[in-house]
User: Fold these one by one.
Assistant:
Number 1:
Amino acid sequence: MRTSFRVAVTGAVVAATVLAAPVAQATPAGPGVSGRVIARTTVGNTDYVLREVTIPPGQATGWHYHDGPLYGVVKQGTLSHYDSTCAQDGEYTVGEAIQEPAGPGYVHIGRNLGTTPLVLEVLYVLPHGAPFSEDAPNPGCPFE
């Protein structure tokens, strides 16, 4: 009983801290782009964070990269994914998985070109304390 109470309180404190803390957004994320932490744990020097990310129709994540790999699945809508050459390197629909490698060599943007909200469930595998994403400038593409 005591252990489960401590785990519940610790989880609530971590969730409140994460939700209240400023989150590094891409450059810039479109209006209404949001993320909600579902679960978070740290093992050694690695943070594992499961988030639900919502991108409204016509909006985008902004240009960014991650300090660790990312694994996601589309729960609703369609993700149009672009790399730093401005080429679409994937289009993902409901149930499809996406994986993004780590590092500044993989600058990218996720866009919702559809008419319904895009909802992603994303697992971030990050060095302890790293932000969800690192801002990156537009690499010269005619879109944000």
Number 2:
Amino acid sequence: MTLRILVADDHDVVRRGLKSILQPHPGWEICGEAPNGREAVAQAEKLKPDVVVMDISMPHMNGLEAARRIRKSCPKTEVVILSVHYTDMLVQEIVDAGAKGYILKSDADKDLVIAVEAISNQRSFFTTRASEMLMDGFRHRGKVPEDQDPQKSRLTSREREIVQLLAEGHSSKEVATSLGISTKTAETHRSNIMRKLELHSVSELVLYAVRNQIIEA
């Protein structure tokens, strides 16, 4: 039985590299690719791949938000998240988003095939450091990590999407066009977000988005 894989990353050279790692494996095929999170969700819903290998930092919609939506609309599709670095909060966010695998981009050449094999056999794959972070998190469940923003969990899926677009430099009108909503609705969301997060400027919003892995620095 063929394992169908969708690859999502905003850099063409990275997608080619990921495909070159995955394609030689017997019984695997790359059924599609996407340059951003929103397209990854659309392609997943259309193609129903077995596995999505996806970068966490992509324009329009980041990998975490895309993973949440893919897992909701395509529950049989598993997700492997790629990141350039680890943080305790990021590991937990990835698990909460429904991803079954998490590896560093720098380790993709040695870990990616192992991760996809594990997931294809209904197992999770987290590198040693990520697993240690998860176990430590379970031991301290109920405690809020010092560096975790308690406000973040209060943002809705739509609000997280708008935070990313605003932090990427889009105007309220551009956000409205991108999401298919009115400019007034986009501005209302923006005001609600700023109030929830107790932010007072776009520069503060950008800093928040960087600190919470919503966009890359």
Number 3:
Amino acid sequence: MVVYEYSIIRFVPKVERGEFINIGILLFCKEKRKLLADFYLNEQKINLFESDLDFEDIISHVQSFIAIAKATASNNPVSSFDVAERFRWLAATKSSCIQTSATHCGLTHDLDKTFEKLFQQLVL
């Protein structure tokens, strides 16, 4: 068994209203030095909320967030942080259109299966 931490990635259409839509998951395991991240945007659901961003802008912001998590954002210095620092930076409280929930923890034998289960339960 390994300890993992996860945070739900949220789209916040208007920060001042405090409304959000779950759009993804970050899952971090210190022991395995692994950070998993993915997202799903439901355009119909997102369009139910008033936002100053169009759907293409939202996609771009979320893709940048995920690229940092996966350390593939070559134009962002955070992408070069070690896995634990990247997770902490991404999961930190922010006042932006892409935010994360509080961090939760658990135990698992299989990080990938746990990630998929959380993604199904909390995002889709």
